[in-house]
Design a protein that fits this description.
With about 280 residues, the chain is an all-alpha fold. The chain has 15 helices and no strands.
Length: about 280
């Protein structure tokens, strides 16, 4: 297989690994940190509400999460925003980021991209890694600000340096493809590896691809397969599709139609559109 073909196939798998995120115009991280909130996990809603009414900003944010994600209750974005606002007004950064996301998407509140940008900017100034990652997307895509790849990459680097996995993965793609930075497979590999070690599923497939092709690391097909299988065990339909595609086409592995069918079927059953298309074209 030629180097050019390898890179083109990698680009295909990268696109697929980010497919679920790119349904949104901006890739934004919304899931909240829960370390501080673990102290409250055994409390009933009524007990949490009492603490929240007394002004506990962590609990206020936790209740906001419950309404936003439908945890132990029905999803109610408006109520989520009400609790996020209470917590955010007390300076709790996770709540401010959550509120920014609600403004960004117009969930529970009128969409206000400028307000979202303002909140992310303020938290980025405070050094918050999630806010820096989210803010980078505004500059990357030129949303309400002039497009500025250099600024976007600077924010990604700062966020990645603090160990934020989404930033590590996004920055790795920049280094792999040479977008806004000099192409550097070794740096891309290290960033993919860090993101994968931080349990970011999107990083598993590109990391495996690096091992398959010896890009930034010594070629190790067995290691690559193990990484794919680990992602599949976590329910990653993207890895199911990617590995299934490899077995179907004989990409860096021996063709195995039975394995291909099994993996593609699993991805298809989870609604993976590419898997559905591939199944219809081949089986």
């Amino acid at each position: 297989m030629s180097k050019t073909t390898t890179i083109l196939l990698f680009s295909l798998l990268i696109i697929l690994s980010c497919e679920s995120q790119k349904k949104e115009k901006i890739i934004i991280f919304q899931k909240q940190e829960v370390i501080e909130e673990d102290n409250y996990k055994n409390l009933s809603y009524k007990e949490l509400e009492i603490l929240a009414i007394k002004g506990d900003s962590i609990v206020q944010n936790l209740i906001g999460d419950k309404f936003y994600y439908g945890i132990d209750t029905l999803i109610d974005y408006k109520k989520a925003v009400e609790w996020y606002e209470k917590s955010a007004n007390k300076g709790y950064i996770d709540a401010q980021n959550a509120l920014a996301f609600c403004y960004l998407k117009g969930r529970g509140i009128n969409q206000d991209l400028r307000k979202a940008f303002q909140l992310y900017s303020e938290n980025a100034e405070k050094g918050d890694s999630k806010a820096k990652f989210n803010l980078s997307s505004f500059y990357k895509f030129g949303i309400i600000v002039e497009q500025n790849q250099e600024k976007a990459i600077t924010l990604l680097k700062e966020s990645a340096k603090k160990g934020f996995p989404e930033a590590q993965n996004d920055l790795a793609i920049h280094y792999f493809d040479g977008i806004g930075v000099e192409k550097d497979y070794e740096m891309a590999f290290q960033l993919f590896k860090s993101a994968q070690e931080n349990e970011l599923l999107e990083a598993y497939s590109p990391l495996a691809w690096c091992y398959l092709n010896g890009l930034g690391v010594k070629k190790d097909e067995n290691k690559a397969i193990k990484i794919y299988e680990a992602a599949i065990e976590k329910g990653c339909n993207i890895s199911q599709y990617n590995l299934g595609l490899m077995y179907l086409k004989g990409i860096q592995v021996d063709k195995d139609i039975a394995k291909a069918k099994s993996l593609i079927k699993k991805a298809m059953d989870q609604g993976n559109e590419k898997a559905i298309q591939l199944w219809n074209e081949n089986f």
